[in-house]
């Protein structure tokens, strides 16, 4: 699920800012960008963020400080070596060394060196608290989106229930149409006086019973009820909901195969349309 979280904190003369951006993903995909002096805690960062369970999550940590930073210094030997080689190549090619070549050299590997500093435990605790605040904000966005998704999904499940109720008005009419069609076809092949009415009635009853959708409607209603109950669960119901929608789809497909009526088929198509939209939304549910 999508979301955004940002938190700021201070430690001594440092201002620490943490931003989290989340896009929907079936798995947890972390992209963590933190300053080098927090690298030793990257594993702890990832462990804490993994509590978000899933999503493509970008983490940005920036630090502003008023202290003079002596931990980074120019690596004179490396820079002179880079410059000499560039100057030699430029001379061989008959080119002038650019005036701004130093800024380019400073971006080359090992041009700057950093002294290893140990991260104070108090500072890490401050950063961790800041991270949790950003995660809480992100979860707030997710909760808001989740409530909107829940409302949409519940409405679509109720629509499917309404469509099932609408089927009833066509069921009896459908039976009469089927019986009439079968009789007409038989009478086209053989004369009416040669038809065994008792046997024909038995065959019609047997045929109509095979097209009965009462069981499918009952099972579909139970699946819909179970779906709504599962939707209220607080612990990651996404996968269970996906399984239930598969069962809902099976019952709807069976109703469609037994319908044998254009009006009922139209209703089945509408039910399938609502179910597909539910499945799309389920992809955004944890």
Shape: elongated
Low-pLDDT segments, ≥5 res: none
Largest sheet: 4 strands, mixed
Q: Give the termini separation.
A: 8 Å
The average pLDDT score comes to 83
Order of neighbouring strands in the sheet with most strands: 1-2-4-3
Secondary structure layout:
Blueprint: E1 3-11, E2 14-23, E3 28-33, H1 42-49, E4 55-65, E5 72-74, H2 76-93, H3 101-105, E6 112-114, H4 121-189, H5 197-210, H6 214-231, H7 238-259, H8 262-282
Parallel strand pairs: 3-4
Antiparallel strand pairs: 1-2, 2-4, 5-6
Helix pairs in contact: 4-6, 4-8, 6-7, 7-8
Structure explained in plain terms:
The chain has 286 residues and is an alpha+beta fold. It folds into three domains: 90 residues, Ribosomal Protein S5, domain 2 (2-Layer Sandwich); 41 residues, no CATH class; 139 residues, no CATH class. It is built from eight helices and six strands. The strands form two sheets. A four-stranded mixed β-sheet has the order 1-2-4-3. Strand 1 and strand 2 form a beta hairpin. Helix 4 packs antiparallel against helix 8, helix 6 runs antiparallel to helix 7 and helix 7 packs antiparallel against helix 8. The longest helix is centred in the middle third of the chain and has 69 residues.
């Amino acid at each position: 699920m999508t979301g955004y979280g940002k938190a700021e904190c201070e430690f001594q003369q440092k201002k620490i800012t943490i931003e989290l951006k989340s896009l929907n993903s079936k798995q947890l995909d972390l992209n963590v960008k933190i300053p080098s002096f927090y690298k030793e805690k990257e594993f702890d960062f990832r462990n804490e963020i993994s509590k978000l369970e899933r999503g493509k999550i970008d983490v940005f940590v920036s630090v502003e400080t008023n202290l003079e930073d002596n931990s980074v210094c120019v690596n004179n030997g490396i820079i002179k070596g880079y410059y000499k080689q560039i100057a030699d190549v430029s001379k061989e090619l008959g080119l002038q060394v650019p005036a701004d070549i130093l800024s380019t050299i400073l971006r080359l590997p090992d041009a700057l060196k950093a002294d290893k500093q140990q991260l104070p435990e108090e500072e890490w605790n401050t950063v961790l608290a800041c991270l949790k605040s950003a995660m809480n904000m992100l979860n707030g966005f997710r909760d808001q989106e989740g409530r909107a998704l829940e409302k949409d999904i519940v409405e679509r499940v109720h629509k499917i229930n309404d469509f099932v109720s609408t089927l009833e008005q066509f069921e009896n009419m459908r039976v009469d149409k089927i019986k009439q069609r079968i009789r007409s076809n038989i009478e086209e092949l053989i004369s009416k006086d040669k038809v065994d009415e008792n046997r024909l009635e038995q065959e019609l009853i047997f045929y109509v019973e095979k097209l009965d959708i009462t069981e499918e409607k009952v099972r579909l209603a139970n699946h819909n009820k179970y779906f709504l109950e599962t939707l209220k669960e607080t612990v990651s119901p996404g996968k269970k909901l996906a399984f239930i929608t598969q069962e809902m789809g099976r019952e709807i497909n069976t109703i469609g195969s037994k319908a044998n009526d254009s009006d009922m088929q139209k209703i089945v198509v509408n039910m399938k349309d609502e179910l597909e939209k539910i499945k799309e939304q389920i992809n955004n549910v944890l």
